Amino acid sequence: MTIDPLEDPSAFWEEFYRTKRTTSTGRATAALQQIATGLTPGQALDLGASHGDDVIWLAQQGWQAHGCDISETAIARARARAAELGLESQAQFERCDLSVSFPHGRFDLITALYLQSPVALARATILGRAARQLRPGGHFLVLSHAAPPPWSPEETPPTIFPSLADELAAIGAPAPHLEVVRADIVTRPGRGPDGAEAMLEDNLVLVRGRSS
Ligand SMILES: C[S@@+](CC[C@H](N)C(=O)[O-])C[C@H]1O[C@@H](n2cnc3c(N)ncnc32)[C@H](O)[C@@H]1O
Fold first, then answer.
1. Average pLDDT, the chain
2. In the sheet where 64-69 sits, what is the strand order?
3. Atom of ligand 1 nearest to the CA of 71
4. Domain locations along the chain
């Protein structure tokens, strides 16, 4: 029986990593670098960690960082890169389908960086669950594409582009246990596959668990 990747998120993302995106960029997300630089390192969790660039960067800054992703291929590459850098104890990776299960533990920093998909992803449930895994004083950073880039092909089915209000509603913030530190649209320069340049808009939401 052939699996239709559009029906099966695991098959879709495996195909994506085996065929379309085969290498790590080696660079951490700029917004993460700006925000995490002001925080005291502790336990971090990255949701949809891809090749592990953000987790590895956090480990290099002194965090005990854990990444999870649905793609076994992406996870294998992330583990290999961490091992190459001698960071296998500080940067750990696990294959998991976040729509079905969630890593155990409480975290000082949780990140969901462009955790968006054109195939099934229980994103709002995942963000809500993540917010409940924050330690008091811990931060949850959600960064998402607010709109498709101008060079994006029309997808069937399309990726969902949330608003800031959608993100806050999914996280369940503000709430007595969750303070909203930032909720802004931010822009960054982007370059398409044919070299075209454009300013791209992202939603940036940062919440902090309140100490009770
Ligand atoms: C758009 S990519 C973003 C990757 C990376 N965070 C970044 O900023 O480049 C979305 C990632 O989410 C992962 N993903 C999609 N659905 C998932 C799920 N149900 N559970 C865990 N990871 C998932 C994909 O494999 C992919 O690596």
1. 93
2. 91-95, 64-69, 43-47, 107-113, 134-145, 197-209, 178-191
3. 25
4. 9-209
Identify the three-state secondary structure at position 2: coil
Considering all CA atoms of the chain, what is the largest pairwise distance in Å, rounded to the nearest integer? Answer: 53
CA-CA distance, 169 to 112, in Å (whole number)?
Answer: 15
Does residue 94's CB lie within 6 angstroms of at least one atom of ligand 1? no
H/E stretch holding 197: strand 197-209
Please provide residue 40's backbone torsions phi and psi, each rounded to the nearest 5 degrees. Answer: -80, 125
Instruction: Give pLDDT tens digits for 10-22.
Output: 999 999 999 977 7
Considering the segment(s) 9-209 as one domain, its CATH architecture is 3-Layer(aba) Sandwich (3.40)
Instruction: Tokens for 25, please give them.
Output: 């960029």
Q: Which helix (H) or strand (E) holds 60?
A: helix 53-60
Q: What is the dihedral of CA 37, 43, 48, 52, to 10 degrees?
A: 70
* Cα end-to-end distance, the chain, whole Å: 53
* pLDDT, position 121: 93
Say yes or no: CB of residue 9 within 6 Å of ligand 1: yes
Which residue CA neighbors atom 12 of ligand 1 most closely? 48
Residue nearest to atom 4 of ligand 1 (CA): 50
